Amino acid sequence: MSERAAPLAAERTPAYTADAVRAAEKPLLEQGVPLMRRAAAALADVVSDELAAHPGPVLVLAGAGDNGGDALYAAAELARAGASVDVVLVRDRVHRAALDAAVAAGVRECSGTDACARIADYRVVVDGILGIGRLADRRLRGSARALVEKILALDARPRIVAVDLPSGLDPDDGTADAAVLAADVTVTFGAVKAGLVRGRGPELAGSVHLVDLGLEPYLRLAHPAVTAPIVLARSTVRVR
């Protein structure tokens, strides 16, 4: 569970590059801190809030990296709570333990074709395609791009919850091409990424929800890429 509070006005907040965030995560991961499970718990809480206001089926778009693992573990929590959750794996590789947990909880794995055929039925879409991993080209391709373009073409779009940042948005400079799902809520982990407050970030991120994972002591060793005013909801994940 997580404890949440939302400020009423924008606050000047340091935002960091992807490299700085990964460096801050490293010592915690080496200590065995389950950052992914904590991130997923907070993500599931936010999606549950969305479902309370917009009840119906959930579609999870899961990529190959840790971002996809966050989304899949959150899908498992949502399914255990009674939500109807479908997941599309947009890459051949997958976080296997997270997928196993999701399937065991009752999440239904479906193809991109199946999801496209019923895309208008979903009330919430969880965008876990890409995270902050190093990529020379962040443009979506293949089934991921096809699904995103299908959602963008809908007259009435589902609520979009982005995992860490909208997929296709550069985490450092905020550049993005046309095939990016503008989020209603972005649940970002550990620190605000610079790309959320630069370039197209403010246009695509929606409401930003910052999950405290305990990175602050390590982020003090890095210089923020930028400090910018942003309205944040915040939560601290309680250790389970």
UniProtKB/TrEMBL annotation:
Catalytic activity: (6R)-NADHX = (6S)-NADHX; (6R)-NADPHX = (6S)-NADPHX
Keywords (A to Z) from UniProt: Isomerase, Metal-binding, NAD, NADP, Nucleotide-binding, Potassium
InterPro entries: YjeF_N_dom (IPR004443), YjeF_N_dom_sf (IPR036652)
Residues the entry annotates as binding (6S)-NADPHX: D66, N67, G68, G69, D70, D164
Enzyme Commission designation: 5.1.99.6
Molecular-function GO term, any one: NAD(P)HX epimerase activity
Annotated residues for binding of K(+): N67, D127, S167
Obligatory cofactor(s): K(+)
Sequence ranges assigned to domain YjeF N-terminal in this UniProt record: 21-221
PROSITE patterns (UniProt xref): YJEF_N
Cofactor binding, note field: Binds 1 potassium ion per subunit.
NCBIfam families given in the database record: yjeF_nterm
Entry similarity comment: Belongs to the NnrE/AIBP family.
Biological role stated in the UniProt entry: Catalyzes the epimerization of the S- and R-forms of NAD(P)HX, a damaged form of NAD(P)H that is a result of enzymatic or heat-dependent hydration. This is a prerequisite for the S-specific NAD(P)H-hydrate dehydratase to allow the repair of both epimers of NAD(P)HX.
Entry protein name: NAD(P)H-hydrate epimerase
Protein species of origin: Microbacterium algihabitans
